[in-house]
Design goal:
236 residues, alpha/beta, Rossmann fold, six-stranded parallel β-sheet
Length: 236
């Protein structure tokens, strides 16, 4: 059975890619064939005339199967702005059914899929649709990445509330200690553990560069395995 996770965060720049890579590496260490996907990315760079996103390239490289870049990241936008604004400026509406079809094609090739969202849970992808709707349609449980810093309690609890209201299961959450100067960081993590029903998958220190193996070693996939479920149409 193919399992899957949708990685979201309390904000942009909280470590979603690092957690995605860590989960992918951990799943590969279990002997699974794994693929990553970042359906929407802004702030992309032009490489050889094509737009490329560094995070999506890392997910592509970490995968067990060779997927075309356009499958890993079908919507790549150059301006580092909200995706719905970038899509409107480019005249390229973000089509959720197209993303779902591409994702289903990935599912048929692997045992596990890790999809990284863009920004936070309620980031608009168009006039009506948000990241939350994308996650709901793809059918994967969410993994929430929380940047442990001043204000994280409110951001995390509001995001958890929104995920639950969306009807998407929360498989677990990750505490990412991005700010080494954060006071009472351990107490903040403890406060969140008391208030979030989903399990804490792991705590990450601040890394100077993305390290999938180091991240995988700090993530306990066993606590969220049951929530991952099976993806229809996956490998058996």
């Amino acid at each position: 059975m193919t399992i899957g996770f949708f990685i979201t965060g309390t904000d942009t720049g909280v470590g979603k890619t690092l957690v995605s890579l860590g989960l992918m590496r951990g799943l590969k260490d279990q002997g699974r064939r794994v693929a990553g996907m970042k359906p929407v990315a802004s702030g992309c760079q032009r490489v050889g005339g094509a737009l490329r996103n560094d995070d999506a390239l890392r997910l592509q490289a970490e995968g067990s199967v060779g997927l075309p870049y356009a499958v890993v990241n079908p919507y790549a936008f150059e301006p580092p702005i909200a995706p719905h604004l970038a899509a409107a400026a480019a005249g390229t509406p973000i089509e959720i059914p197209q993303i779902a079809a591409l994702c289903q094609g990935i599912v048929s090739q692997v045992d596990a899929v890790v999809v990284e969202g863009v920004g936070g849970w309620r980031v608009p992808l168009g006039p009506v649709v948000t990241v939350a709707e994308l996650a709901r349609i793809l059918g994967f449980p969410a993994v929430l990445v929380v940047a442990i810093r001043l204000g994280c309690l409110n951001h995390a609890l509001l995001t958890v509330e929104s995920i639950e209201a969306s009807g998407v299961p929360l498989a677990g959450w990750v505490a990412n200690r991005l700010d080494p100067s954060c006071l009472r960081a351990a107490d903040n993590v403890a406060a969140l553990r008391e208030r979030i029903r989903a399990p804490l998958i792991g705590e990450l220190p601040r890394f100077t560069a993305p390290d999938p193996q180091a991240a995988a070693g700090r993530l306990d996939l066993s606590v969220c395995g049951a929530a991952a479920g099976a993806v229809p149409g996956g490998r058996r």
